[in-house]
């Protein structure tokens, strides 16, 4: 009876209709959705930007902050002449004072200065609780243009993971007259501590085979446009690993005699100067005393590389992280617009063994426009 | 014509051919997971009607195969049609009918699981309350504006719609979203002041501090695709600007992974400063309202909330082997007035509101404490309306086989006795 009934309706048709119904019900087209939810009560990300408070000197006119600056002031002078004060921040404390000052000088049309020259240009000021250096850039830009600033007073310092710039620029007469007011303004600054975010875990132990996706070390590297990246011949025993922040390439060399790393990085311009970089390695990474300009030449050996000459350095010291003996062999290759840094750093024995291969590697580097 | 079609669908040959194709597909689809990744292979081989080109041991072979949907559907039609054709309401055949019905239930159950099941995750630290679960793979571009003092209105655009590009509009948004670029997977790089950077793609928000570049689609189980898009927001009066939105900034898990990476390289303080730039809210004003927008893991809100009271991660003494993962949570439902504490641990999930909450991942215990982290836990939230069908189907098949066997056995013994 049932069989006859079903046959009459069409068994296949029944099955087809059933499946169609299931499939249609399951066809969830992705579309824009709207919903209302209670506001989240965890303002974890609010108020995390650096902030300051200050006392505005008489006569100064506070202006709206711009995208680039935290605060702006118009500083009036006689006969309609004026100067401008801007407070700017940049994330990070990585840059040296010298390189920061040289950036300001470059923007102002002035030649870069060395550490010794910088020392003559600065005086110490207190920016609130922070002791900082005030740099006088007299002669910045030609005074022939009325609109162009011809004197700049700048204070640059690092605090709380942020590099701060306080720049008073404008008519030389106004800047000179307002210098004390500017110093008073710097003294009045108080820093409002940003609310830190709670550190949460990035790695989780898993209860099953699935592991949490994690960012590889190379996730925060310098943008490596393949067109601008040089090519090289690295020994097969060097294991290339994802490059980390500020690096273009990184190799790990392991052996029974220890471990070493080869890194490649490039910085714009002269990257703060050879001396500044060498001393950074000597003091911060090797625990050595800073070298002077005079004995720098004794540390450097000339090396022929593709397209010109490079500087080879070989230094031994104590790893400031592990407190173990470490050797650093580096090659600095100055090029038209960039300075390239190649470093072999690791246990002394493996560094000695790999030195020749490292030099060959640096000499094999072919830059895109060579 | 209809009779021929009916005969075709009820034929045993079709069953054999389909089962043979099924075996081949399962083999090929399983091997392909090594090259194509688990999710991709599952989707391409088993969740499609046809498969064009297969991957075997790293080699692409240009042949076609019927997909999982086609084989499953035809098998189901075949089985249902054969069931109807040969249906006899007699006690002698009751076992066979029951077995067939069980297999049909298994097939239908699998189909409905495929269509209606959903897996999401709740990730929270001790003290945090969550009334939503997040997708582990899918993202959404959420525009959030204040509805009143306590609630906010969210317009969520699935990332798959962004991937199509073009213009996206919604009546609740007083502007259109023009998708100018979309990368399914991307890598961030911090625009450090001392590095020579290209000009930013846009001068608004996130793009001022971070560059993003496209990355190859990941197929590994251990990593995920983190999308980034360049969008332009256009009001009737003209463009309001272009912004970069990225999963790197909107996905807490990715943010924390980046924080850890930066922290390792540059120290905690610098890392916090950089991460603050990354997670700085991006907003746009339009139609008299302020809209915050973020590309975040797609969320599913529930009418109840869970608060993580305590995350326990104990290990066997002297080893790193986990002994116990345990989350004590408070379940609150304002609609029912329910408020109770529940312990969720391995093999003891919470079943509530049609969903099952399994203990999934854990960052608590000694390691987290030493790293200065707040203990946190991740629950896997599974919604599967047809989770009972495999059990029911298997019971029916087993009962059918036993019944049929018993009928034959009893008949055989009876015949022997009479002989």
Keywords summarizing the entry:
A: 370 residues, alpha+beta, Protein Transport Mog1p, Chain A, seven-stranded antiparallel beta sheet, extended, B: 419 residues, 3 domains, ten-stranded antiparallel beta sheet, 37% helix
Kindly state the percentage of residues in helix of chain A: 25-40%
pLDDT < 50 stretches of chain B = none
Overall radius of gyration of chain A: 30 Å
Order of helices and strands of chain B: HHHEEHHEEEHEEEEEEHHHEEEEEEHEH
Question: What sort of overall outline of chain A do the alpha carbons produce when their principal axes are compared?
Answer: extended
- Indicate how many domains the architecture of chain A comprises: 2
- Counting DSSP E segments of at least 2 residues, the number of strands of chain A comes to 18
**Termini separation of chain A:** 89 Å
Number of helices of chain B: 11
CATH superfamily heading of the largest domain in chain A: Mog1/PsbP, alpha/beta/alpha sandwich
Rg of chain B (CA only): 28 Å
Tell me the strand percentage band of chain B.
35-45%
**Count of the separate structural domains of chain B:** 3
Instruction: For the record, give the distance between the C-alpha atoms at the N and C termini of chain B, rounded to a whole number.
Output: 49 Å
Largest sheet of chain B: 10 strands, antiparallel
Low-confidence stretches of chain A: 43-48, 140-148, 195-199, 206-228
Specify the structural class of chain B.
alpha+beta
Oligomer: heterodimer
Query: Could you tell me the number of beta strands of chain B?
Result: 18
